[in-house]
């Protein structure tokens, strides 16, 4: 694992490979990692034939949207990796904000890292990791943003950037994402910058103080969204002064 403080992260530390089509940019990054890639590699595709979301759900991936994955190798000690999805969400929010005209519906993050415009999902993020045979740890950050195509989603209301007067192309949006991610990874600082990351995340969070339902693999729990703790866990006030910390789940408002 990485130890000590790294030198400052810059845009020059990252590479980008643009593909016309692939089964999944996450799968492509993982294959590169297994083949010895040193990391800090972005892979984008105009179309995915086997895109996936959380819990193995299909992620429809037609041309016109942004499909991007970032391969990181040993990005932080294992005990500090849990805060990385929050940093990623802040970076994606920042990139989307830069291509939306002012005065539109609220652009927010739904815990842990869905991006909503007017309470409708426009981006999903899938973080996956694997220990490699040579002892390194590969972590892949997959990002799918609805730019001009809006796939049906039976779980959540969805939208796309075109519906909110953004004229940005997937390539222009990726340029903003490329820069924002480098900046936020520097702030995150291998997990040492979690306090700044959680502060930025809370400032753009959706639904703090509202009633929510969290679907877990084996049950659904309702309560008031009390925010996130300093490690990024969701805090659910279930009543009678009891706060439950949740590491992973699907959040529904109302």
From TrEMBL:
CDD domains: BPL. It comes from the Bacteria. It is an enzyme of class 6 (ligase). It catalyses: biotin + L-lysyl-[protein] + ATP = N(6)-biotinyl-L-lysyl-[protein] + AMP + diphosphate + H(+). GO terms for molecular function: biotin--[biotin carboxyl-carrier protein] ligase activity. It holds the Pfam family BPL_LplA_LipB. PANTHER family: BIOTIN PROTEIN LIGASE, BIOTIN--PROTEIN LIGASE. Its EC number is 6.3.4.15. NCBIfam families: birA_ligase (TIGR00121). Gene3D superfamilies: 2.30.30.100, Bira Bifunctional Protein, Domain 2 (3.30.930.10). This is biotin--[biotin carboxyl-carrier protein] ligase. The keyword ATP-binding applies. Keywords: ATP-binding, Biotin, Ligase, Nucleotide-binding. Residues 15-189 form the BPL/LPL catalytic domain.
